[in-house]
């Protein structure tokens, strides 16, 4: 499984989270502590919001721990809102197009998990992507597919509702095809202002996810960046969505999250 982090707050250099901490995301690319596979060497990516509405993006299909360009960029880029991801493939090819985060307009998305039986369901699921949105389909992953499904079903108006619908549709196809493998979904989506982070799985055993916050800032991670501070990181509850923006104050809003096949009024 992959490892990722997202930051929202006052501008900081990316290296303060991506490379500098004792158990930084770069360190997790070589040795993760809370993943089934400890090495995440199938590519990496960082996406960040700066002066423009659309995010910058740097992705490569190489191990993060061995990329001097990533270190150099993280030392120079300051951002108020950024995503970073190290990939462990669940079966799709190792390529730049399959590295996270994924971007469509001002929206950015990344994911740790899988759709059970994806190889059997991919064709049917891709029919749920709107023709205009499908032009953004560059890779072959289930992660990008879920993002574009959500964008096809009102994701720009209501990303939480659109992802509820997309996951419910995927689970329905899994059931009708007799697939017993679970759907696992630890993901983040944002537009440069508001962040939503999800922890859900169809078998109740979701990938790990934690958060830490202070006055006006929030960090969400697959696993803690520093284990020397007990209690500093709070687990995101199973089956929930964490939301954070300038309007939520110092603490994120955490609400139950469960897929459902009816779109919300906002998404419709």
What does this entry look like structurally?
The chain is α+β, with helices and mostly antiparallel strands and 268 residues long. It has a single domain, classed as Aminohydrolase, N-terminal nucleophile (Ntn) domain (Glutamine Phosphoribosylpyrophosphate, subunit 1, domain 1), CATH 3.60.20. The protein is built from seven helices and 13 strands. The strands form two sheets. A seven-stranded antiparallel sheet has the order 3-2-4-1-10-9-11. Strands 5-6-7-8-12-13 form a six-stranded antiparallel sheet, covered by helices on one side. Strand 5 and strand 6 form a beta hairpin. The longest helix is centred in the middle third of the chain and has 18 residues. It is globular and about 45 Å long. It starts with a strand and ends in a 12-residue tail after the last strand. 44% of the residues are buried. The model has no long low-confidence stretch (mean pLDDT 94).
Short description:
With 268 residues, the protein is α+β, with helices and mostly antiparallel strands. The chain is built from 7 helices and 13 strands.
List the helices and strands and how they pair.
Layout: E1 3-13, H1 15-18, H2 25-30, E2 44-49, E3 56-60, H3 68-76, E4 78-86, E5 102-104, E6 107-114, H4 118-126, H5 131-134, H6 142-152, H7 159-176, E7 184-190, E8 195-201, E9 210-214, E10 217-221, E11 234-235, E12 240-244, E13 253-256
Antiparallel strand pairs: 1-4, 1-10, 2-3, 2-4, 5-6, 6-7, 7-8, 8-12, 9-10, 9-11, 12-13
Helix pairs in contact: 6-7
